[in-house]
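Page 42, continued from yesterday. The earlier attempt failed because a stray header line got pasted into the input along with the sequence. Redoing it now with the clean sequence only.
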Amino acid sequence: PGIVAVIAGAAMVSQGSLRLPLMVAAICSLVMVAHVISYPRDAVAEERRKHHESPGAAIVRLWNHRPLRIVLIVAAAWNLSLAWGTPYLFFLSEEMRLPRGVLGLARAAGLACAVVAAPIYGVLCRRVALRQLLRLAVIASLAPGFLYLLASEAVDVVIVSVLVGMPTAFGHIALFDLLRRACPRNLEGTAITLSYSALALAAGAGDVVGAWIYARGGFAVALIADALANAAVLPLLAALPAGLISRCDGEADTEIS
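This time it went through. Structure tokens are written below.
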């Protein structure tokens, strides 16, 4: 759906219509709101009866769960994306002067990499420990972005988007695998919600800082800053409990405290 949305949105905007994609986005949001409102109350009540822990006690237990705190820092560092928000769009549109349709195609090509990265991860995670998969994703993500500086045509941008998108998609999957493992038992939903909030906060802050860096140093400096933020994940992995990231998927799972 994300790939289709990017391509469709770019096509609408390229025809000179910004109102139409905004209306479609608003309608989709209203449909989701209607679905939430119509969700059976009995199902919600049943879920509440299953869990007797108070919200305050749940938050305290989450905060005291040290592995989750470290994982949230790892997630924030990975998701800063200092070069991939405003700097990326301004570089392609203002400096390279690419048409809007090409911008949408480049974004869609990057998103489409998840379709390939997901089954690859599904095979590797059964054979390779999560620690190695995370390291692979981080190291592989450091260099491809700099290839944008060598791109001269639209096809070059799309190819580089794929090269950037593959390790990024692979890293996101590995990160959510790590988040799942770090969640305290019976608080998985709350922990994932907290993690998603941390990711969104990091992405928003990263876009603001990245735009500031781009305005003063250009896209190359933003890429360097982004690579440094990604590289900061590597020493953070050493602070995680070995039992959390040293096993393959499917091996004995014990709760880490």
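Notes: The mean pLDDT is 84.
Reminder to self: strip header lines before submitting.
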